[in-house]
Amino acid sequence: MFRKFITTAVLVLAAAGGSYSYYHHSVQNPWTRDGQVRAHIVEVTPRVTGQIVQLNIRDNQHVEAGDLLFKVDDSQYKAELASAKAAELQFEALVKKAKNEQNRAVQLEQRAPGSVPVLTLDNYQIAVETAEANLEAARAQTHEAELLLEYTDVKSPVDGFITNLNHRVGSQVVANSPVVALIDEHSFWVEGFFKETDLDGVQLNQRARVTLLSNSTQPFDGTIESIGFGISKTDGSTGNALLPNVNPNFQWIRLAQRLPVKIKLDSAPDNLQLRVGTTASVQILAD
């Protein structure tokens, strides 16, 4: 009987010690399974309107900065550039004409003072300045036409992965309307959502350990880059008749809110491909 009592007491003490150790470890090293892999998404957006005549990418393909993704039909923009250059030549001729007329009037006035009225000389000067201004405007239009022609080649701004490509050769694209998403491969981070009660004492640059649900055998380290300063609230938002919306549910237990903690990745394995939106567990490590 006494032996059973001793055995039970030892087991209870061991369980209590283990529970305390686990609780202490959890307090010192907050952990959440509510984490996600994130990255910056570049919306590839053409600056001109037209049909795609050349498509050099496929869905989920890796591309490098400067790679030609697709080409928009440039026939219209070549014609506009030719028209702009022709207009520029016309205005150059008008500048020469205005200057010739001004020089003739000035020389005549020099040979026979008073033969050309001052107002006429002023008008010749104004004509020259107007022609030069028109020439600058024509040059600006030529430059704009050159840019539009250049913009028919849509290139990758960053290294990354093409995602959700739904266009094909012949598809119509519209200027300033996104066509495809490009995930910047150098911008991956993990965002963990921690209970507000777990963040007491947590500091920037503190180490963290990340484990992906898709690859739990290869945890890797990171550093806390930022801690969210606010989250959206559900109660109190404006509803009908400008009155606040209030959730009528009552809970006996008051749930802690979760705040986003951004983890900068330090040492992700080379053979591990990160994917935006996948699930991760994050543990903040005590110093």
TrEMBL record:
GO cellular component: membrane
Pfam family, one: BSH_RND
Keywords: Coiled coil, Membrane, Transmembrane, Transmembrane helix
Domain p-hydroxybenzoic acid efflux pump subunit AaeA-like beta-barrel, first and last residues per copy: 187-284
UniProt KW Membrane keyword: yes
Domain of life: Bacteria
GO MF: transmembrane transporter activity
SUPFAM superfamilies noted in UniProt: HlyD-like secretion proteins
The UniProt record lists the keyword Coiled coil: yes
Coiled coil: 84-148
Domain Multidrug resistance protein MdtA-like barrel-sandwich hybrid: 41-181
Record-stated family: Belongs to the membrane fusion protein (MFP) (TC 8.A.1) family.
Name of the protein: RND family efflux transporter, MFP subunit
